[in-house]
Design brief:
By secondary structure, the chain is an alpha+beta fold. It has 3 domains: 93 residues, Potassium Channel Kv1.1, Chain A, CATH 3.30.710; 123 residues, no CATH class; 168 residues, no CATH class. The chain has a 6-stranded antiparallel sheet, sandwiched between helices. The chain has a 3-stranded mixed sheet with strand order 2-1-3. A two-stranded antiparallel ribbon has the order 7-8. It is flat, with a radius of gyration of 31 Å. The protein starts with 6 loop residues before the first helix and ends with a strand.
């Protein structure tokens, strides 16, 4: 027994049936009229009911439309209706940037499940700034929760570019509120604040220098959004200039002035930290986003790599930069003085040749030598256990390598190298303690040069250390 399939011919025959206007040959029994331009489409009840739950229910109910064999549609263009009716007969439809949203709307209203899926998928794969605001509104009104979440994610992922477009100004307040509540927007916070001012002026129709009345109007416009700005991520100058502008509500500005005073009093560092911890429980303005102030990490993908590899939201939300070699000096003793006994620690290194790599440890670097656990050439050395330690490579342009995470070797998990003896110049012995990438052998030039381009002939340009 053989099964013969010719779906292409079936599709073409049914399409020709729909497009044939000869009643005697096509046996049409139902008419759909597009009210927008009074275009009429002759169809078959059997086809409509088999392709759409809406039409199946309509014909079962024997309502007026069933009795009159006619349906008038007010909410669709003739071109969209023609495309969808052609799809009903042939199983084929062309979805593009111009019609995707309208096809999604029609499919949702008239219960065409597979077209909802097709058009949603197309929109996701072809998201653009030009359409994202419309998609947000549509997803919310039609309860397309998956598409709604995807829209928010797309805006958050591309926020830095999005705020520079005119489409950003068309966002509704409730949408902007939800976006700004996201901790993972990778954009300078002062730029976010400036974009909110621009958005507020647009919504308030303020086009010139503000007088007192217009300033109050702007304050009212942004009043429900301003508490989502993370003022703690402003520089001292940015915060000072912002407070001077007088656009911040009094309740928030008083807290920022108090923060400013503690920030300027170097003797009260402990009190500043206590103030921040208390205020973080109350509002977002003192809670940093996952964006962290690294002069080395400038690419979003690199930040996302680190976030995925470390997989600890608390670390990213609370961490601070404890050391910068350019600022604090290329001095190993100074580094230990500042970075020992801090618990979870992230180190990022950039070389003069633009290699970027580093490491992460959950136990940190311990100054108490009694806790050190290894002897090397008769001398006690700084090895401590951390089975979850790993090193990573973020940029290796020389060999065109993808970013990678390299966990500690199974047999080395009871001892982890404490730290290099000197911060500059550097030396790489990759593969002794941590796993090498597949296909690379320990001791080879490829292994020794993987992180920094060579084993010894590289120089640290910057070394940053982060901890809570």
């Amino acid at each position: 027994m053989e099964t013969y399939l010719n779906l292409e011919k079936l599709s073409n025959d049914l399409k020709n049936l729909f497009q044939n206007e000869n009643q005697e040959e096509s046996y049409f029994d139902f008419e759909i009229i597009c009210e927008q331009n009074e275009t009429s489409f002759k169809t078959h009840k059997s086809i409509l009911s088999s392709r759409s739950q809406y039409f199946k229910s309509l014909f079962k109910s024997k309502m007026k439309e069933y009795q009159e064999n006619k349906l008038i549609l007010q909410d669709v263009s003739s071109s969209i209706l023609s495309s969808i009716l052609n799809y009903f007969y042939s199983g084929k439809i062309e979805i593009n940037l111009e019609n995707a949203i309208q096809i999604l709307i029609f499919s949702s209203r008239y219960l065409i499940d597979e077209l909802i899926e097709f058009s949603s998928s197309f929109i996701k794969n072809n998201f653009q700034f030009e359409t994202v605001v419309d998609v947000l509104k549509l997803s919310e009104s039609m309860n397309f929760n998956q598409l709604l979440d995807f829209s928010y994610h797309f805006i958050s992922e591309n926020f830095e570019e999005f705020i520079k477009t005119s489409f950003f100004l068309e966002l509704e307040e409730n949408h902007l509120n939800l976006i700004l509540s996201n901790d993972e927007i990778l954009t300078n916070e002062f730029e976010i604040f400036q974009s909110i001012i621009k958005w507020g002026k647009h919504k308030s129709n303020i086009n010139q220098e503000m007088n007192k009345k217009e300033k109050e109007k702007l304050q009212n416009q942004i009043s429900n959004i301003i508490d989502k700005i993370r003022f703690i991520d402003f520089s001292k100058k940015e915060l000072k200039d912002t407070l001077k502008e007088g656009l911040i509500p009094n309740q928030i500005s008083q807290k920022l002035i108090e923060f400013q005073k503690l920030q300027n009093d170097k003797k009260n560092y402990k009190k500043l930290n206590e103030f921040i911890q208390i205020e973080q429980e109350k509002s977002l303005i003192f809670k940093s986003r996952f964006y962290f102030k690294s002069t080395i990490i400038q690419e979003k993908e690199h930040f996302k790599n680190l976030k995925e590899w470390i997989n600890d939201d608390e670390f990213f939300s609370k961490m601070k930069k404890g050391y910068s070699a350019k600022k604090d000096g290329f001095d190993c003793k100074k580094w230990h003085d500042k970075c020992d006994d801090q618990g979870k620690t992230l180190i990022i290194i950039k070389t003069k040749d633009n290699f970027i790599f580093g490491g992460f440890t959950e136990v940190g670097f311990i100054s108490d030598t009694s806790k050190w656990s290894a002897v090397y050439s008769g001398e006690v050395r700084g090895f401590i256990a951390d089975p979850n330690a790993f090193i990573f490579s973020l940029r290796n342009d020389k060999n065109d390598r993808e970013p990678g995470k390299f966990p500690i070797k199974k047999e080395k998990k009871k001892k982890m190298p404490y730290f290099i003896e000197d911060l500059q110049p550097g030396e790489s012995n990759f593969g002794h303690t941590y796993n090498l990438p597949n296909g690379i052998s320990y001791g080879t030039d490829e292994a020794n040069s993987y992180l920094a381009g060579s084993r010894c002939e590289w120089v640290v340009d910057e070394l940053e250390t982060f901890f809570i």
